[in-house]
Amino acid sequence: MKIYKALIALFVAGAVSLPTQAKSAERVMRLSLSDALESARQNNSSLKAARSRVDQAEGRVVQSRQPFLPKVTLSETLMITNDPGAALVFKLQQKSLQNSDFEASKMTHPDVINDFNTSLQVMQPIYNADASPGRAMALTAKKGQELLAARAEETIGLQIARLYYGLILAKKNIEAVEQSISTMQGYNAEAAKGYSAGMLSKSDKLSTDVRLAELQEQKLLLQDEIKNAGDMLKVMLKLDSDVTLVLTGDFVVDSSLPEQEAKSSPGNRSDIKAYETFRQVASYQEEMISKSGVPRLNAFLQTNLHSNNIFSGGASFAVGMNMQWNIFDGMATAGRLQEAKAQEREAMYNYDAAKSNSLVEINKSFRSLKTAKTRIAVASKSLEEAKVSLDYIGRKYKTGMAMTFELLMREQAFTYAKMRLNQASYDYCVSQKELEYYKGGL
Q1: Order of strands across the sheet that contains 296-307
Q2: What is the mean pLDDT of residues 179-194?
Q3: Could you tell me what percent of the chain has a pLDDT over 70?
Q4: pLDDT single digits (tens) 54-98
Q5: 267, 54 Cβ separation under 8 angstroms
Q6: Does residue 272 contact residue 354 with C-beta atoms inside 8 Å?
Q7: pLDDT beyond 50 at 23
């Protein structure tokens, strides 16, 4: 019986712990850079907002069909009156007028009359000169918003890459600091023995304590960097705050550099194309305003059903053409035309500035990439030399043949060399992404 009860208790404990373990497993996410970029494309709020602006532009494209398509209006109006004139007209429209209705007493004091008026009106545009440039403007504006959305995706991708590589950098630096802490703890123990034996002064002993405290403080700061970068990355990917990110990527340094510095602006970059598109939008807007002063021609068809009781009585129709010419509108059109011309110039200046800046950005990122690769080679060599130097002084220090300040100098140089290599690798990877971004290929 005791064994039976123990088995039941074990089963219940396992059943209770399984959901907790599953929930804990769900909170850990292994994340590569490509996974992060794909997740941002699907979930990032800024990208969703940019795509919503494309949808808004599509709505304006739909609205631009109005000058070409008919407008159909159905209305129902009820009037109850004993007005002599209205009563006579309503009976006429209802086709219920009789000779007796022309008696003076009935015309002067008519009975209360009901009039249900069912009206169907169709307006068909025939010629509106500003319709075609208006539709072209809406279509071009949508294209511009699509280009801006594509550039927003590239911008978010660059931000994700910086955060991702920043997390890798902070974790590598923590590993370097933890390794230095472990090394310094060993030397600190040696210093304590030397101080107890009277071979080291108190200042030498305290100097190793101070260096160990500095490394501990540096580790705390790096841990905060990891938390801050991780929280920001979760926001960008729209992940829950309790998710633990495990990065599967690393710094990758290519054996050869990409193409040399740019000689001409990248014409396929989304934002530069967008500036050119918005210049075209301003041009269409100017054309549309200019043509708004041309006479408009519209046809219409109207049918009316008047009855004392709804949907019964007299029916009539009217067909016609309407021409409207806005000859003078108090300088409103002239002002709008002046504004449109200024907007076209602004778009042209923005386009020229974007092209010029793109060259500077590409060349700057290429130089940063080239310098970072050289720094990696220099830092790697420095790290090897610092390691050899630290090991040599460490062995001498343990035998009492090296001073404490020599040990501390070599340890600081070794730790600094590791962090320099990490920083150079980070700068290389980020510069590579920036170069792709400024070329328009991220």
Answers
A1: 71-81, 113-127, 296-307, 314-324
A2: 85
A3: 92
A4: 999 999 999 999 999 999 999 999 999 999 888 888 888 888 888
A5: no
A6: yes
A7: no
Can you give the chain as a three-state secondary structure string? CHHHHHHHHHHHHHHHHHHHHHHHHHCEEEECHHHHHHHHHHHCHHHHHHHHHHHHHHHHHHHCCCCCCCEEEEEEEEEEECCHHHHHHHHHHCCCCCHHHHCHHHHHCCCCEEEEEEEEEEEEEEECCCHHHHHHHHHHHHHHHHHHHHHHHHHHHHHHHHHHHHHHHHHHHHHHHHHHHHHHHHHHHHHHHHHHCCCCCHHHHHHHHHHHHHHHHHHHHHHHHHHHHHHHHHHHHCCCCCCEEEECCCCCCCCCCCCCCCCCCCCCCHHHHHHHHHHHHHHHHHHHHHHCCCCEEEEEEEEEEEECCCCCCEEEEEEEEEEECCCCCCCHHHHHHHHHHHHHHHHHHHHHHHHHHHHHHHHHHHHHHHHHHHHHHHHHHHHHHHHHHHHHHHHHHHCCCCCHHHHHHHHHHHHHHHHHHHHHHHHHHHHHHHHHHHHCCC
C-alpha 136/C-alpha 281 separation (Å) is: 8
Tokens of residue 231, six digits? 């929280």
| Residues forming a β-bridge with 300 | 123, 320
Tell me the per-residue pLDDT of 271-315, one tens digit each, with 9 for 90 and over. Answer: 999 999 999 999 999 999 999 889 999 999 999 999 988 777 788
Q: Which residues contact 301 (CB under 8 A, 6 or more apart)?
A: 121, 122, 124, 317, 318, 319
The answer to whether residues 277 and 143 touch, using CB atoms and an 8 Å cutoff, is yes
* CA separation for the pair 273, 266 (Å, rounded): 10
Q: Cα 133–134–140 angle (5° rounding)?
A: 85
- Whole-number Å distance between alpha carbons of 135 and 128: 12
Residue tagged 């007028």 (tokens): 97
Answering whether pTM is above 0.70, one says yes
Residue with tokens 């794909």: 38
Locate the domains of the chain by residue range. 21-66+131-292+342-439
Residue keyed to tokens 């009277």:
198
pLDDT for 260:
65
Backbone angles phi, psi at 331, to 5 degrees: 70, 10
Is CATH 2.60.40.1930 the right assignment for the domain spanning 21-66+131-292+342-439? no
d(CA 436, CA 366): 10
Q: How many CA atoms lie within 13 A of 317 on its CB side?
A: 6
CA 144 to chain centre: 15
Residue 372 has a CB neighbour count (10 Å cut-off) of 21
User: Rounded distance, CA 127 to CA 298, Å?
Assistant: 7
